[in-house]
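Exercise 7. Predict the joint structure of the components listed below.
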Amino acid sequence: MYELLRHYNYWLYALILAVGLYGMMSKNNLMKKLMAMSIFQWAIIYYFISIGAKKGGNIPIFPEHGIEKLTIRAHDYVNPLPHVLMLTAIVVGVATTGIALALLIKIWHNWNTLEEDEILERMRNE
Amino acid sequence: MNEQLPALVVIIPLLFSFLIFLIGFIEKRTPYFLLLISSALTSIFSWKLLIRVIKVGPLSYHMGGWEPPWGIEYRVDHFNGIVAFAVSFVAFLVILSFKERVEREVDPPRWSQLYALFFAQLCGLLGITVTGDVFNLYVLLEIASFSAYSMVAIGKRGAEFSALRYLIFGTIGACCYLLGVGHLYILTGSLNMVDMVNLLKNITDSSALRVGLCLLVIGIGVKMAFFPLHTWLPDAYSYAPSTVSAFLAPLGTKVAGYVLLRILFWIFKPSFPSEKLLLEILGWMAFTGAFFFSFMAIVQRELRRAFCYLLLSEISFLGMGVASGTLDGLRGTILHLINDVFMMGCLFTSLCAFIHQFEKEELRYLEGLGILSPWVSLGFLMGGLSVIGIPPLCGFFSKWYLILGTIQGKKWHLLVGILVSSLINTILIFKVLEKIYLKHPHLESLKKLPFTFLVSLVIFSISLFVLGGLASTIVKKVIDPWIYTLGGF
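Solution:
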């Protein structure tokens, strides 16, 4: 049991990921699909951030002076790389949402609805 | 200058993309010429890059002067050298052809924006090809995808809906890829491909690694439109403006195919324990896909949709070549990847020219075009015959290697898949050719065709012959040196 709970961060991320995937597959409203897609993306960001964290870890910034005297042990500091990667991934996520919202506005103008099945049916009839 | 080449092929499209966008506010005509000149420049640089790689071996470029395992490395070896050249050259040819088509299809204020998106796409694709860093690859993958979503959405009514579907699929794919990168990063602590290859040697087997590999393959499979993950492609490419589909169809999926090969055979080795099973599964999926897509291609009534399915069945050929897991199979896959960029470029550019002439999408309007528009028909004929695999044209040689590979690997189902699916594709091509050459014209007269389409189609047709003639040289000089670096073959 302890073995399973020790990596609770992975369980959490898998749960959020599954929620996002379920939402994208089952929801009919395009806006809801989009929200589920954001949840899906955020699960991955959460996963990356959690792998960089350490218990009792300090921020990975060294003092400007006296660095020669310090003994630097890696496990005293949080791993900054996954966090930096996620800064980029967040930007990517924002851009995806931006494009998707623009597309939703265009869909609303053209079809006057955001329900997927209605749009599909009308596309078939045209 | 020569040391900067790997960065230049990515930086030029990126910078010009912004420049074209900004100039578009002031001037309507200059953006196109900037686009043309800079894409010519990009293809010249990528040609020089390829020649240099063949002469001196793999090149490595350190972004910002940071040493490889820490900084981003752009690494060009034989394989991505030739893919980068094929992509930038075909992009140049498509750009050369489509000025008047864009101007008729899109409103004037949108011209420069569309051009800027074309270049953002090219920047992403070339970046994916030359980068040596798995996370950088993710970012460039997203740059390419974003520009593709926006370009598709410019099309006719319904395009915005298929663009949104494409976006949702594409995002799932990119997220799977990112998760896979996360798994690899946890296990190796590195993002650099060369470094990762060395570190992975020490890890023989672990379930996390296997899951990571599967996630990477699924992610790239979505971008590549591999069999069960293809549903976004026919809609997106047939609702998009015809110029956009001419630009995206030859390039986007092939670059993803390159990434798949790089992951399966370079980062992971074929000796990796679970890869054998994965290749087996990929083989069956590609086998099913090849049949499915070929049949779907025949029954379509719309011009572009039919050829989208043809494109998908060509991608399944790549999958079958990968799955054969033999030396010749791999040779054939790489050769087919490069040939396919040119063949699909030729076919989709001639479709774009056809659509420009009669502004209709249905197949039946093609009737009698052999008389009305002989030159475009000839270009289409060349592309079509090459896809079928008629000897002097390039499609024959890559299929030959693919078939040899499946026989060597004793994968009989793949052999059947390749042969029967090519046969069905032949039916589609001949059905269209019959309409073009043997039927009486449906339409009285056609709209005038811009001269640029002819120039680009002539160059395309010549390059199909040249690629066919050079097939053994390409295998000897470019593909074999790369395969020998893999070891295990």
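Discussion. The helical segments of chain A are 2-6, 8-26, 30-52, 80-111, 116-125.
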